[in-house]
Design a protein that fits this description.
Layout (H helix, E strand, L loop, with lengths): L11 E2 L2 H8 L8 E5 L7 H8 L3 E5 L2 H10 L7 E3 L15 E6 L5 H10 L6 E7 H8 L9 H9 E9 L4 E2 L6 E8 L9 H13 L5 H4 L1 H4 L6 H4 L8 H11 L1
Helix pairs in contact: 4-6, 7-11
The structure holds S-adenosyl-L-homocysteine.
C-alpha cells in the first residue's frame, strides 16, 4: 500500500461507487484523457478499461508511481512521474485531450489556472476540489462566492456543479467536504481583448471586492470613456461577458 503523504495533499478515495460516479461524467468520445494525481488508481481503474492507451496519468509521488506501474502494466508508458504544474503538456499530447482528477487541494487553484492557460487543447474537465472552491468556480455573478476563479473560468467554460462528497469516504479523511464539477469549453469571443490584460482587470477588480470599479481600477481608467454606470458597480455584479466589455473599453 501507499502511505498517504500530507504535504502532497494525498487523501485517497475509498469509495468505488463515488469513483465510478466521477468517471461516468466523462463522455464516451474518441479523445485522449489526462488524469492528474492518480495516487493508487481509484479513478484510474475505471478509466483504463474505457480509454486504454488514450489515457495518460501524471503523478508526483514516486511510491504511487511504483504502485500504479504494477497495477496498470498495459499503460506503463503513459504513467508519468512528474509535477503537473511543471510539465509541458505538449510533450505528452498532440491535439485535444480531456482532464480528470481528484485534485490535491493545496494546489487546486494553480492546477485550474494551468488548465485555463491550456484551454485551446482542453475541451472538457471533470475534477474534484475542496467543496468551497468548487462552489466558487461554479458561482454566478451577483453571488457572494463569485470571484476571480469564477469569472476567469466561466469566460472559457460552462461550469456545472455535479455533487458533493463527504469527508469520511477518504483515507485519511480531509477536514472539509469535496465537490465535483465539470467544465465544458465554450467558444467565447474576446472581441480583440488580450487575455492576460483581461485577467489582470479581473484580478485587480476583485482585489478590493467591496470597492466600486471606479476605485479599484483607478490605475487603468485615465483618459478612457467608460460608461459611468458600469464603473459604479462592484466586481461581483459583472458577468464574464461584462468583464470583456469593460476590458475592451479600458484597453
Ligand atoms: N486520485 C486519487 C488520489 C487523490 S489525492 C484518489 O482519488 O484516491 C491527490 C494526488 O495528487 C496524490 O496522489 C498526490 O501525490 C498527487 N499530486 C500532488 N501534487 C501533484 C503534482 N504537482 N503533480 C501531480 N500529482 C500531484
Amino acid at each position: 500500500m501507499v502511505r498517504p503523504k500530507k504535504h502532497l495533499g494525498q487523501h485517497f478515495l475509498a469509495d468505488k461507487n463515488i469513483a465510478q460516479k466521477i468517471t461516468r461524467l466523462l463522455p464516451n468520445n474518441n479523445l485522449q484523457l489526462l488524469e492528474i494525481g492518480p495516487g493508487t488508481g481509484v479513478l484510474t481503474q475505471f478509466l483504463e478499461p474505457r480509454f486504454g492507451n488514450k489515457l495518460h496519468v501524471i503523478e508526483i509521488d514516486q511510491e504511487s508511481i511504483e504502485f500504479l506501474k504494477n497495477r496498470f502494466p498495459s499503460i506503463i508508458q503513459n504513467i508519468h512521474f512528474a509535477d503537473f504544474l511543471q510539465t509541458d503538456l505538449s510533450s505528452i499530447f498532440q491535439g485535444q485531450f480531456m482532464v480528470v482528477g481528484n485534485f490535491p487541494y493545496n494546489i487546486s487553484s494553480p492546477i485550474l489556472f494551468k488548465i485555463l492557460e491550456n484551454r485551446a487543447s482542453i475541451p472538457l474537465v471533470v475534477g474534484m476540489f475542496q467543496k468551497e472552491v468548487a462552489e466558487r468556480i461554479a458561482a454566478s455573478h451577483n453571488s457572494k462566492q463569485y470571484g476571480i476563479l469564477s469569472a476567469w473560468t466561466q469566460l472559457f467554460y460552462k461550469v456545472s456543479y455535479c455533487f458533493t462528497v463527504p469527508e469520511h469516504v477518504f483515507v485519511p479523511p480531509p477536514k472539509v467536504k469535496s465537490g465535483v464539477i465539470s467544465l465544458s469549453r465554450i467558444d467565447r469571443d474576446l472581441k480583440g481583448v488580450d487575455s492576460s490584460f483581461l485577467l489582470s482587470i479581473i484580478k485587480t477588480s476583485f482585489n478590493q471586492r467591496r470597492k466600486t470599479l471606479r476605485n479599484s481600477l483607478k490605475g487603468f481608467i485615465s483618459n478612457s470613456t467608460v460608461d459611468p454606470k458600469l464603473l459604479a458597480k462592484r466586481p461581483e455584479q459583472l458577468s464574464p461577458e461584462d468583464f470583456i466589455n469593460l476590458a475592451r473599453e479600458l484597453s
